[in-house]
Write a structure and sequence with these properties.
Layout: H1 2-34, H2 39-59, H3 63-84, E1 86-98, E2 103-113, E3 116-129, E4 132-144, H4 150-162, H5 165-189
Antiparallel strand pairs: 1-2, 2-3, 3-4
């Protein structure tokens, strides 16, 4: 009995230490990201944001209008999640380099597609080109539980080499949908 109490306490301590580590890491990321901007740039951004917010609130008739718009966006998001099967659970963005003609950001994204969990980590290089911004994905790393299907690990390796996020999301959506159908079918026959 005493060992189980101690083990539960140890587990809780480890969970709290892990949470502290994650929060410290997130704090350091935010602090590092904010050091890329000068005080002038921060003040300009704050003023610009305040002007935009004041302009947006003047354009709307009432808070109920905003609430209706928010509910509409929520319904749209639910529809897209139902349609694609994707549900994103976390996203972390860290600016690695920011210059006048290029920005490099590191993204960490996790979620589920139907019942298959996934994690992505990649760098995004954005460069302004005339009036457009071109973006290039590099250092793509995908973490998925392949289970007993070797084709999934081949697909993940191929996608990491190509660095194509669009291919990953399209293929994962189709695979996860059929994976879910197979899982339900096998449960039905058990």
């Amino acid at each position: 009995m005493d060992k189980s109490v101690y083990q539960a306490d140890e587990d809780e301590i480890q969970a709290l230490e892990e949470e502290i580590r994650l929060l410290t890491e997130k704090y350091e990321d935010l602090r590092q990201e904010s050091t890329f901007f000068s005080d002038e740039e921060i003040l300009k951004s704050i003023e610009s944001f305040q002007r935009e917010t004041q302009g947006e609130t003047k354009g709307h008739e009432s808070p109920s209008d905003l609430k209706a718009q928010l509910e509409s966006l929520g319904r749209d998001l639910s529809f897209f999640m139902m349609l694609t099967g994707f549900q994103f659970t976390s996203h972390c963005k860290k600016t690695v380099e920011k210059t006048e003609n290029r920005t490099v950001q590191k993204h960490r994204l996790s979620g589920k597609c139907h019942s298959l969990p996934f994690q992505l980590e990649f760098q995004l290089l954005e460069m302004p080109n005339n009036e457009k911004v071109s973006a290039v994905v590099s250092d793509l790393s995908i973490i998925m539980e392949s289970g007993e299907d070797p084709d999934v690990s081949k697909f993940v390796s191929s996608t990491e080499e190509n660095g194509s996020l669009l291919t990953f999301f399209r293929s994962l959506s189709a695979y996860a949908e059929w994976y879910e159908h197979r899982r339900r079918t096998f449960l039905h026959f058990k």
